[in-house]
Amino acid sequence: MKKLLATIAAVSLAGCSTMFNEPEQQVILDGYGNHNVPVSILTSAGTYKDVTPAVLKIQPGMRSSDYIIQVDEPCYGVSSVVVKKELAASYWLNSLNIVGFFIDFATGAMWNYEEKVMIPLQSTLDCGTASN
Fold first, then answer.
1. Alpha-carbon distance 124 to 69, whole Å?
2. Continuous H helices in the chain
3. The model's pTM
């Protein structure tokens, strides 16, 4: 009986997104088959460089923000894409446990990012094949 009460107490004191979502998410960046294209990844913490295909490791939280991916290869012109955070579907399960809304908000587990982001890459006419 004590184990059952402890389980019920633990579930009622946790948010659904906190229980079901991973603390770190991986977002795959791909360029429609164009490999080794340099990109800059702009975050709230700073900017870093990578090449396609790349894997972003994001820890969603209250302070996490959108990520901007910019192509650094002149032969592909100016191209960028925004990786936006969205509410996780599991967040709405908190309607069964109102306390969970506040817990998921406080932990940041309520946010989710797309699993795969395609970067629009189109080579300019005067460059031929770039970065391949």
1. 19
2. 2-12, 16-20, 98-107
3. 0.69
The sheet with strand 38-43 has its strands ordered as 46-51, 38-43, 67-71, 80-83
Mean pLDDT of 61-85: 81
Return the number of other C-beta atoms located less than 10 Å from residue 67's C-beta: 20
Return the DSSP state at 132. Answer: -
The pLDDT of residue 130 is 45
Cβ–Cβ under 8 Å, residues 111 and 90: no
Element spanning 55, H or E: strand 54-58
Q: What is the DSSP string of 29-44?
A: EE-TT--S-EEEEEET
CA distance 12 to 8: 6
Count of residues in the chain: 132
